[in-house]
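ok so dumb question maybe but i'm new to this and my supervisor (M.) told me to 'just get the structure for Glycosyl transferase' and walked off. so i did the thing. is this what she meant?? sequence i used:
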Amino acid sequence: MRDLLSHGLRPLAERRLRHRLAALARPPGGPEDLLGLRVALFGIFSNRMGLGQGAELLARQLTAQGALVDRIDVAGELGLPGNLVRTEVRPVSELRAGGHDLVIVHLNPPEFGQLRTQLAPELFQVPIIGVFLWELDRVPRDWREAIQSCDQVWTPSVFIAEAITATFPDLADRLRVRPYAVDLDPMAQRTMPARLAARTRLGVDPDTFLVLTSFSMKSTLARKNPIAAIEAFRRAFPAEVNATHLIRCLDHAAFPEGLARMQAAASGDARIRVAAIGREESSIEDAYLACDVYLSLHRSEGFGLNLAEALSMGLPVIGTRWSLGDAIADHRLFIPVPSTLVAVVDDQHLYDGVAGARWAEPDIAFAADALSRVAASAHAPDTGPSKS
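this is what came out, is it supposed to look like this??
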C-alpha cells in the first residue's frame, strides 16, 4: 500500500524538514475513546491508490465507532492528480482552527512532515495521530521526528508496530494497532452471473481456471514478487491445462524495466496475461469477481489490502505468510506459503536507507502445489481449500 510519491526528499530538504519537525515534538497522549469527537482525517481521497483506500476504510471505521469525521483531501497539496471523485470529501482550504477535537493524518512520515510544516500551525492545536504504513522489519531512521510530533501513531498491523519498536524502542508507548475493517467497504457479491459477466468484460474464457495477481510497480517489483507468481503458475499448470493467470500491473511507468522482466517471464505461454493498467481504470472489482483464486508471493506486506479484500469476497488466497496479520493468515480461505528470510535487495532502491532489513523468499514449489489443490477443489467451493 505504500505506493506514494517518490523515493524521498533531497538530502538538504530532508534535513530541514526533520529539523522543523523536531521542534514540533510533543509527549505521547491523545484520546483512547473517539465517541463524539470531531475528527479531521487527512488523506489522499481523490486519487486511486492504496493509501487512499486505507484512508477511506479508516474513515468508515471511525464513523462506526461514533466519531464525527471530516475527510480532508490532500492529494493536491502533495502534487497528486485527482482521478477519483468522492462527494463527501472537503479541501484543506475549508479547515478552520478550533473546528475539530482531533487531527488524524493517514500518510507516511515524509509526506506527513511536508503537510505538517506546510499548513497553518493553528490547525494542529489539538491531539495529532499519524497513521503510518511500512513493509520491512525495520523502519527508516528518519521517521523519528515525524513519530515524535504525534501524540499517537496508529498502524494497521502488529508487524508494522514491531518494526517501529525495533528501530525506536523509546517511542513504543505512542503506538496503537488498528487493523483496517475491510468489511465496512463491501464489494459486489460473488455469484455465478456476476462471475460470468466480469469475465466477459475482461475478455476471459468462462471455463478457464483463473488465477489473479495484482500490484503497483511503485510498491516495487522485488517486494511484490509477481515473477515468482508466474513461475508458480507455470509449475502448477502444464500447457494443456485450461488455466489463465491475470496479472494486473499498476503504475508500470515507475519501473519500465520491471514490466519488461514480467513480460519476458510470461513469454511463450499465452495463458499468462500481463495487464498494464492505468490509475483511471484501476478498479479491481471485476478481477475479483472473475477469478477463482488470488495469488500473492510477496516478500513483505505492511497490511495486505488486496489479500484482505479477496478473502472478504469469499476467494481462496494463496500468499506468503510472513509479515501478515492474524486476521488474514488465520482466515479459513487463506493458504499460507512458507518462506525463508533473506536480506532486502531492491532494484528500485526504495529501501536502500534501511540497514539490516530482511524480507521473505517464498517457497514457489509449495505455492504451485497449493494452486493445483485449489484448482482440483474448484467445483466444491463450500469446503474451502485445504491448508495442509
